[in-house]
User: Which sequence fits this backbone?
């Protein structure tokens, strides 16, 4: 079983990069990742660790994957102390973040948006480079609304930002979290303090999705700066549908409607 082998390879000091194809099938390894790898350092009083373990796994919608090839289980793992959860938006970020995961001293779950396998084309630098874990990237400066997401959803938010500027005259700041555990609360809160409005979006179901953690934290830390309640635009609380996928996805039109609600509150 690969899930046992990876931990056995890492604990003596080697580096292991495991791959689970797809994230929908990562659940049999859940106990080993959450109860063993994530807690090994704490349990041993820092004598041992699984810090050289990286698990790569494709996740998210692909256009035809239905309930067993479209899930977004990142929130399950973000709830676990001792794991880092990383999600790139494209090839350049994938290389830099993956190298950072491999060299990090904590076990990392590296979720790869599967639809980008076919749709993302970029000139990736040949040299060695890393993108820091736990640090968000501001992709577009704005003054009216902060848009926060990760993975594939970043491309939706960038398009929505263009729509909001063109159709509403609304300036949106777009932030890619890149890492959701730990997430860059400082960058998000600084942006919301400036704009006064926040929209968080991801494909995973809305109830207990990671957007809920962001919304709760921002509401507490930026309460006096908020001009409107935080908006979450996410997947619905249903199994991922096949023929009804377009209605499930947090597409640009749902995000655009959320921006209108933020601006009219």
Assistant:
């Amino acid at each position: 079983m690969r899930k046992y082998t990876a931990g056995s390879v890492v604990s003596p000091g080697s580096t292991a990069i495991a791959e689970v194809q797809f994230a929908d099938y990562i659940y049999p390894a859940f106990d080993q990742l959450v109860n063993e790898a994530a807690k090994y350092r704490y349990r041993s009083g820092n004598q041992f660790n699984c810090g050289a373990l990286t698990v790569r796994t494709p996740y998210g919608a692909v256009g035809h994957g239905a309930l067993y090839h479209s899930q977004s289980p990142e929130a399950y793992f973000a709830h676990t102390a001792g794991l880092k959860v990383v999600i790139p938006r494209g090839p350049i970020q994938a290389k830099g973040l993956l190298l950072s995961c491999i060299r990090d001293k904590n076990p990392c779950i590296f979720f790869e948006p599967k639809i980008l396998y076919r749709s993302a084309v970029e000139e990736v630098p040949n040299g060695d480079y890393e993108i820091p874990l736990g640090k968000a990237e501001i992709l577009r400066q704005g003054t009216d609304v902060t848009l926060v997401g990760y993975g594939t959803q970043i491309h939706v938010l960038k398009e929505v930002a263009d729509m909001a500027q063109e159709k509403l005259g609304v300036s949106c700041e777009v932030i890619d979290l890149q890492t959701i555990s730990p997430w860059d609360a400082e960058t998000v809160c600084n942006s919301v303090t400036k704009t006064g409005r926040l929209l968080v979006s991801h494909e995973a179901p809305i109830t207990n999705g990671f957007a809920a953690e962001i919304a709760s934290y921002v509401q507490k830390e930026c309460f006096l700066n908020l001009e409107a309640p935080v908006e979450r635009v996410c997947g619905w609380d249903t199994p991922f549908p096949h023929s009804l996928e377009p209605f499930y996805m947090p597409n640009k039109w749902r995000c655009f409607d959320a921006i209108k609600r933020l601006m009219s509150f």
User: Anything to note?
Assistant: The two ends are 53 Å apart (CA to CA). Residues 153-168 form the longest helix (16 residues).
